[in-house]
Design goal:
Elements: E1 7-8, E2 13-14, E3 19-20, E4 25-26, E5 31-32, E6 37-40, E7 60-61, E8 66-67, E9 72-74, E10 78-79, E11 84-85, E12 90-91, E13 96-97, E14 102-103, E15 108-109, E16 114-115, E17 120-121, E18 126-127, E19 132-133, E20 138-139, E21 144-145, E22 162-163, E23 168-169, E24 174-175, E25 180-181, E26 186-187, E27 192-193, E28 196-197, E29 201-205, E30 208-213
Parallel strand pairs: 1-4, 2-5, 3-6, 4-7, 5-8, 6-9, 7-10, 8-11, 9-12, 10-13, 11-14, 12-15, 13-16, 14-17, 15-18, 16-19, 17-20, 19-22, 20-23, 21-24, 22-25, 23-26, 24-27, 25-28, 26-29
Antiparallel strand pairs: 29-30
């Protein structure tokens, strides 16, 4: 089902049972696989502190990106050229997925998260609202970033993690609100990151501690 106001460029490939909502833009060379949903409205619970903005921008798929089977892109996402949102990925409103970046199977990216260029996010990663992922980051499978769950004021600022350029986050790592991983740092698998991590350092443990500098 394709809304009449959606704009599908020549050369885009649209699979079976795809739903494309009003205002979605699909540029040339994009591949949208079976069962994907593009541009749906957000669903917010009564106690949600997410931004309630009826004027969210349309969803835009730039040239050559790929959307996997069963992926759901909420209204206002931007998927940059050559990026891949894998099977059953959820990209919430106002997410930006940078050029050449990949979100693997089952990834869930919270509202307003910005992901840089050439980022590799492996399967089942959860990125909470307020998370910032800079260029060339690698997140192993089952990594989770969290935001502050205690401040429910409508104007509260979400404190997510920042993943600095080129850092490597091992499988199963949890990053608490305000965790700040420096550029080129490496976090060992299964760690709990509670605060700042120096650039070009190796850390692991629960809580994660610096073992050596790289």
């Amino acid at each position: 089902m394709i809304d009449p106001s959606a704009r599908i460029s020549d050369g885009a490939q649209i699979g079976a049972f795809v739903v494309i909502h009003a205002g979605v833009v699909v540029e040339a060379g994009c591949v949208v696989q079976d069962g994907a949903v593009l541009g749906k409205g957000p669903i917010l619970g009564p106690s949600s502190v997410a931004v309630r903005d009826p004027a969210i921008s349309p969803t835009i798929l730039e040239a050559g990106c790929v959307i996997g089977c069963g992926a759901v892109l909420v209204r206002g996402c931007i998927v940059r050229s050559g990026a891949v949102a894998g099977d059953h990925v959820l990209l919430r409103e106002r997410v930006e997925l940078g050029r050449g970046s990949v979100v693997g199977h089952g990834g869930a990216v919270g509202a307003g998260v910005v992901i840089g260029e050439r980022v590799r996010i492996q399967n089942n990663v959860v990125l909470a609202p307020g998370t910032v992922v800079e260029d060339d980051v690698l997140c192993g499978p089952n990594v989770t970033t969290t935001d502050d769950p205690f401040d429910e004021r409508p104007d509260a600022v979400r404190r997510g993690a920042r993943l600095g350029r080129g850092c490597r986050i091992g499988a199963g790592t949890i990053l608490l609100p305000g965790a700040d991983v420096g550029a080129g740092a490496v976090i060992g698998a299964g760690s709990l990151v509670t605060g700042p991590v120096p650039p070009r350092s190796l850390s692991y443990g629960s809580p994660a501690r610096v073992v050596r500098h790289i």
